[in-house]
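Usage

Read records sequentially. Each one opens with the input sequence:
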Amino acid sequence: MNAIERVWRDEAARLVGALVRITRDLSLAEEMAQDALIAALETWPLTGVPEKPGAWLMTTARNRALNAIKRAKLIERKHALLVEDGVYEPMPDDALRLIFIACHPVVAREARVALTLRMVAGLTTSEIARAFLSSEVAIGQRITRAKKAIADAEIPFELPTEDLDARLASVLEVVYLVFNEGYSHLRESLVDEAIRLGGLLSSLWDDPEVRGLHALMLLQASRIPARIDDNGDPILLEQQDRAKWDRARLEAGLAIAVGDGPYSLQAKIAASHARGSDWTEIAALYAQLMAITPSPVIELNRALAVAKADGPAAGLAILDALAHDKALVSYHLLPAARGDLLAQLGRFAEARDALERAAALTADVRQRERLLARAARFPSR
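and closes with the structure output:
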């Protein structure tokens, strides 16, 4: 990834968020942000990346936005909407403010989350599709429908003065999806941004689920320094060197009081892992989580916990019940998990088949190679 692309990944959300605050117009904000990026692509190769690239992009985009407003003869109407420095804002962060704006209830839940991930995290359509276990075409259609719904309803793209609580659940979902994208694909800037937003939300809302999400992200992120070996391959949790864990994030996550909602239960699972992985407790927590928010991915994780607590046959029985779930048809972790449990039961030929199927389902070349290497250890039928 070149320097300009890295800057864009890091700054896009704040840039669009600030421009929406100035223009109250999503399309114009996105257009001016893209114009600033084009200007950077033309200028920086000649002059070098500026010392404060985010400020350079913001100045360029802001100037172009104001010029566009003038050209449209809207300056008098828009002038009253400009937010000057020092004026109190109920949402003291442009990226978080943009998430709340994009999570408008007029837009269907999945469409609003997809739109927000595209704008706030700068995720590509394929990355969002992966997060939703969906296709790129379906995600592209969701984003298009979200923008159309906002345009058709003639909704001003601005922060509401009330009813922010009604949007909180969608906002939490977006923040956690941003975190997961960073955590799963080693994009620490996304991890850091999600944790920052989680901390900011915790300071604004006295809510156990907001605290639960913040604790969950801190606890999971604390393991990042020990997750990858020198060759770039993942290290399983039970094999990680806990001395490498980030103690500050770990202790901060453990210190947060959480409730019994979905994020809080996941935080309790992460806390159990931090204390040494009580698999019986973890399996029970996954069962509680399934009762609140049924999901095939949660059930897959419960199966693995049950396998640790009660043996591989018990876990495999749960996985086999998931085999025909449409949401997991292309999810490589299901056959990968089956392969591991089958191997533990001595069913080596079946384990090889399952691992080879998992390899065929993943688009990650290194992951595919690792799965095929594991499969090669076992005899074929």
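Summary fields computed downstream for this record:
- The domain at 1-87 is CATH 1.10.1740 (Rna Polymerase Sigma Factor; Chain: A).
- The CA atoms of residues 90 and 260 lie 28 Å apart.
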